[in-house]
Specification:
By secondary structure, the chain is α/β, with parallel strands linked by helices. The protein has three domains: 3-81, Arc Repressor Mutant, subunit A, CATH 1.10.10; 84-162 and 264-303, D-Maltodextrin-Binding Protein, domain 2; 166-260, 3-Layer(aba) Sandwich (D-Maltodextrin-Binding Protein, domain 2). The chain has helices at 3-15, 18-25, 29-43, 59-83, 99-116, 133-139, 171-174, 183-188, 204-213, 221-229, 243-248, 277-295; strands at residues 48-51, 54-57, 91-97, 120-126, 143-147, 155-164, 166-169, 192-194, 216-218, 235-237, 252-254, 262-270, 302-303. The strands form four sheets. Strands 4-3-5-12-6-13 form a six-stranded mixed β-sheet. The longest helix has 25 residues, at 59-83. The radius of gyration is 23 Å and the shape is globular.
Length: 307
């Protein structure tokens, strides 16, 4: 088993199509089939099932890819790190972001990378659920900025900020007053929640209460926003995410009476992954941008780092 075979296998797994995988690998289809056959003979198991619409991975292929993907990422990082000039950042970086983080700094991050790091290839994945964060970091992503990640021993996480969550909805749904809303009144409202909750807030017991009362669950922040604007309900959300609608008056927010309902933003990476100049530079850039949003007043949050 060599790096060429692993690369070809990963291409077929990701493309689910032999001809596209061959084109991506700059090989003929017969050469790709030959490499796959060698792997199947070495492991004594079938890796793909040929179907009319492409190649379907077997359970063995799924297991193999979970091991192969991080190996190939590490090999690419090594090659790029050794080739680059000491004073010039080059290569690929993949960053996962919660929807609120993408809303806050996504455009600025893209502009900054294009302007300051012309030799960097940037990939961004939005809305990573906490339940799959570890697997995403192992296979597709170098860094992730997420709220309240689960405590995995393989995960290295650094707290960045703490944000108070509020009741967000149309004034005719949640009331036009600025007075805090009592928790029981909030729970009695037609609640809309993100379907893949994970650890949305710091208080797990409160999260369970809110989830139990939710009338609608949607796996899309865009769709949740549309549903709230249409008057179908309200949500426990971020003032920053809905800042434009709140300033325009189409949506309103009310704090929730009692102890603050908060969530904590972390920057995460794999604990056993060797640090690279790319990861260190991008991590510092992400933190700098978050701090700028806090200082400018666009993100009402408490920094947990020196800004």
């Amino acid at each position: 088993m060599g790096s060429k075979q692993l690369t070809v296998f990963a291409r077929v797994y990701e493309e689910k199509n032999l001809s596209r995988a061959a084109w991506q690998s700059n090989l003929s289809q017969s050469a790709v089939s030959f490499h796959l056959k060698q792997l199947e003979e070495e492991y004594g198991t079938q890796l793909f099932i040929r179907e009319a619409r492409g190649m379907r991975p077997t359970a063995a292929a799924e297991r193999l890819y979970s091991h192969v993907a991080p190996i190939l990422r590490a090999m690419r990082a090594l090659q790029e790190d050794m080739k680059k000039a000491p004073d010039r950042l080059t290569g690929e970086i993949a960053i996962g972001m919660a929807s609120s983080v993408m809303k806050a700094i996504g455009r600025s991050l893209i502009s900054n990378v294009l302007r300051e790091y012309p030799d960097v290839r940037l990939s961004i994945m939005e809305a990573i659920p906490g339940s799959t964060l570890l697997e995403v970091l192992k296979t597709n992503t170098d860094l992730a900025m997420v709220f309240n990640p689960f405590d995995y021993p393989e995960l290295k996480k650094k707290p960045i900020l703490k944000e108070q969550m509020v009741c967000v909805g149309r004034p005719d749904i949640i009331g036009a007053t600025d007075e805090p809303i009592e928790i029981e009144e909030f729970l009695s409202l037609p609640l809309i929640m993100f379907r893949r909750l994970g650890k949305l807030i710091d208080d797990t017991l409160m999260l369970k209460q809110i989830d139990a009362r939710a009338r609608i669950r949607i796996n899309s922040m865009q769709a949740i926003g549309d549903a709230i604007l249409d008057g179908h309900g309200c949500m426990l959300g971020s003032r920053m995410y809905f800042r434009e609608q709140i300033e325009a008056g189409t949506l309103h927010f009310r704090t929730i009476a009692g102890p603050p309902i908060e969530r904590t933003l972390y920057i995460c990476e794999l604990a056993d992954r060797p640090s690279t100049l790319m990861a260190e530079t991008m991590s510092a850039l992400l933190i700098e941008m978050i701090c700028a949003k806090i200082h400018e007043g666009e993100w009402r949050a408490t920094p947990l780092i020196s800004c």
